[in-house]
Amino acid sequence: MLDFREIFGEFGTRALQQLQPEVAHDIAMKFLSLDPLRFFPLTALDPSNVSFQMEVPGIGLLPHPVGLAAGFDKNAVAVSALTRLGFSSIEIGAVTPLAQAGNPRPRLFRYRSEQSLINRMGFNNDGIGPIRARLKTRKLLSSSNVTCPLGVNIGKNKDTVPDAAIDDFLEVHAGFKDLADFFVINLSSPNTPGLRDLATPEFIGKVARQFGSEVKKTWIKFDPDMNRDSFQKLIEATGNSGLAGLVLTNTHRVKTPEVGGLSGRPLLARSNTALEWAWDVHRGKIPMIGVGGILTGGDIVEKISRGASAVQIYTALAYRGPWVVAGLLNEAGIRLRELGFASLHEAYGSHY
Ligand SMILES: Cc1cc2nc3c(=O)[nH]c(=O)nc-3n(C[C@H](O)[C@H](O)[C@H](O)COP(=O)(O)O)c2cc1C
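That is the input. Now the predicted structure with flavin mononucleotide docked in place:
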């Protein structure tokens, strides 16, 4: 039976989808920043009798694998509300040391029939100071709040020259060291000139040296557009670096119909291939978070079977609305039963 929250979620999502995508996102964030669900009990998220628990090395035992990908709550304005929507981890950012406006609008485009988005946001964010202050206030209130592991996606300012990128990364890391459970160094956004060029084995070595013992809490996020050889060299370097794991993948760089990064359904195959190429190198030794193109619960099972310990979504939230996590888990449960698995964990690595 539909309850009023479902009707509201469905109606709200449809209404927002009539608007220019970034306007819709801004309205959704304003609403979520009010933490509107705090007066209601959380909905039970797991209606099936399948266990979705996944252990993610360095992050912990999660009740289910579905986290929120970077870019949705860049400024950490709605972490509490997003936790109440059922995500098992939330990655804020990308945060850069200084605030920056990003690229001129329009910079986010919706392709409904393909269930995809193209964005060229360009790391618009409030910078370390205000975002840190927001998270600190939340932490002070957290005894009365729901919580889940919080990650910070680390970016570099547009004007930072490549040689100084490592300093930006260290600065953002230092700014959130006491507040975040994990970090993700973003070497993969297509919208900051020169960022992807930093994805080299040498730079990963430099990160490992400069982050010292903090590498254990730091993941690295790659793009899906490299050739197999270059990509696998990076995976080897990551394995040697002591970094916590791999987030695969960011968006696919496109030039048409808009310049930017493509996410959603058309990204699924590419990002799944990245999981396979990475597994081919490390065979389960490096933890992976699978992100890219998840629109159904079956897509989650696919990524776990290819060796991801957890997954993240962005575009599915824009298309399916606020109750997407419960919907995805329902479908994942059905898919697992079809495949004869009693738990999601049993599906881990089963593709190989
Ligand atoms: C509007 C938008 C902004 C994004 N910003 C970031 C970002 O700041 N840092 C990052 O690592 N990924 C960013 N991403 C990429 C997502 O985190 C994710 O990797 C990608 O969208 C693929 O997942 P999906 O197909 O579920 O959307 C952004 C994606 C979108 C659509």
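The two ends are 40 Å apart (CA to CA).
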